[in-house]
Specification:
Number of strands: 10
Number of domains: 1
CATH superfamily: Aldolase class I
Strand content: 15-25%
Structural class: alpha/beta
Radius of gyration: 16 Å
CATH topology: TIM Barrel
Helix content: 25-40%
Largest sheet: 8 strands, parallel, barrel
CATH class: Alpha Beta
């Protein structure tokens, strides 16, 4: 199973996450306590291996904002975390992750309105559209037909529930942010434990 470490704001943490086994690194460009500037994101991304997915997180952005961010920073995947329409997503010439806040099966049904390959299932909305550290009822996943969608599970993930998350049906990737933080800052020890649990290794090489 793959792992995305989201809300990265500095090169040290990005490099550490990659070395520990992260498959994707997320940069938040929407309003958030983890928001990163374009120059900072560009600098961090320039140091990352080509095979690592570089994801930019947006909430209800304009097309121009996305284009400028992609061009400036070098992100290769756009994660849309707001009320973006299927038509808007289809109009973008990038790899798209469409995020959904899940509270009921009806919320899951909405994913089939979108043609994007990746869908991110997050907990209920709080102060921000995402990154609130709240899990939804994962039992909803067991009987749902995702068809050809690759599911990224987010919201409330920690080292304490990562094994439960890993056994959920249809999950392609786990996306963690606040669950690997201490006092609002990324904690390298927690990143190590989380990724090691997913990858089945005891320590980084």
């Amino acid at each position: 199973m793959k792992v995305k470490i989201c809300g990265i704001t500095n090169e040290e943490t990005a490099q550490f996450a990659v070395k520990t086994g992260a498959d994707a690194i997320g940069f938040v460009f929407a309003e958030s306590k983890r928001k990163v500037s374009l120059p900072n994101a560009k600098r961090i991304i320039s140091t990352l291996p080509e095979e690592i997915k570089k994801v930019g997180v947006f909430v209800n952005p304009s097309r121009e904002t996305i284009e400028e961010t992609v061009l400036t920073t070098g992100i290769d995947t756009v994660q849309l975390h707001g009320n973006e329409t299927p038509e808007f997503c289809d109009s973008l010439p990038y790899s798209i992750i469409k995020a959904f806040s899940i509270e009921s099966k009806e919320d899951l049904e909405k994913i089939h309105d979108y043609t994007c390959e990746y869908v991110l299932l997050d907990g209920p909305k709080g102060k921000y559209y995402g990154g609130n550290g709240i899990a939804f009822d994962w039992e909803l996943l067991s009987s749902f037909d995702f068809k050809d969608k690759k599911v990224i599970l987010a919201g409330g993930l920690t080292i304490d529930n990562v094994h439960e998350a890993m056994i959920q049906k249809n999950v392609h990737m786990l996306d963690v942010s606040s669950g690997v933080e201490t006092n609002g800052e990324k904690d390298l020890s927690k990143i190590t434990k989380f990724i090691s649990a997913v990858k089945g290794v005891k320590s980084i090489s």
